[in-house]
């Protein structure tokens, strides 16, 4: 049974965070989006999707995701691939040279260390070259059924605005307070996708839809600035 990875929690905010998560989950059926990787529980397919989604809109990734999965159904299928060929597949997303190198390093490591399988262990996932805390947590939650503090730009924005009343810092991923707030929740794939879709629908980085937001009565940011 996958374990739950928790940081030290900020107990005084636990009820606020739970209320936010409850509203986000209740709202999800109204704002839910559909992407091909969300129909998979395969750790490699989820890992591939998360790497492609870095600094990229999901709608763009959707245009090439199925083709990449068909071409590279396992990490081993990527090892030894021609770099220019891979870059050509990744060009529609931008940052294609960086993505190509990251994917190739990951594939070689998984071949060498894990027999071409993506491990369902949080710490092992974090050791894969090019996999940071968020990607490791996302794969662990979505593909492996575990729970770990999940903090991307969308989740950081919702938690920071609702609970703390401010926009998240630019380097939200290293912010200890936000990491601990994320650790107050028991994450599963439903909650993860609900937060991401809620942010896309209401809590956008620019011009958030605070007046229409179901979280407004729970949100210190919305009540202060709107």
In terms of structural class, how would the helical and strand content be classed? mainly alpha
User: What is the number of strand segments?
Assistant: 0
**How many domains comprise the coordinates?**
2
What percentage of amino acids are in beta strands? under 5%
* Number of DSSP helical runs: 11
- Termini, distance in Å? 45 Å
Helix amount, in percent?
40-55%
Unreliable runs: 4-9
Q: What would CATH call the homologous superfamily of the largest domain?
A: Hypothetical protein, domain 2
Overall mean pLDDT: 92
Major sheet summary line: none
Textual characterization of the structure:
The structure is a single chain. The chain has 226 residues and is mostly helical. It folds into 2 domains: 11-33 and 148-225, Endonuclease Iii, domain 2 (Orthogonal Bundle), CATH 1.10.1670; 41-142, Orthogonal Bundle (Endonuclease III, domain 1), CATH 1.10.340.30. Helix content is 55%, strand content 0%. The chain has 11 helices and no strands. It has helices at residues 14-31, 43-53, 58-71, 83-90, 96-114, 122-127, 133-142, 153-164, 176-182, 189-201, 220-225. Helix 2 (43-53) packs across helix 3 (58-71) and helix 2 packs antiparallel against helix 7 (133-142). The chain is globular and about 55 Å long.
Protein traits:
2 domains, mainly alpha, globular, Endonuclease III, domain 1, 11 helices, 226 residues
Describe the protein's topology:
Elements (H helix, E strand, L loop, with lengths): L13 H18 L11 H11 L4 H14 L11 H8 L5 H19 L7 H6 L5 H10 L10 H12 L11 H7 L6 H13 L18 H6 L1
Helix pairs in contact: 1-10, 2-3, 2-7, 4-5, 8-10
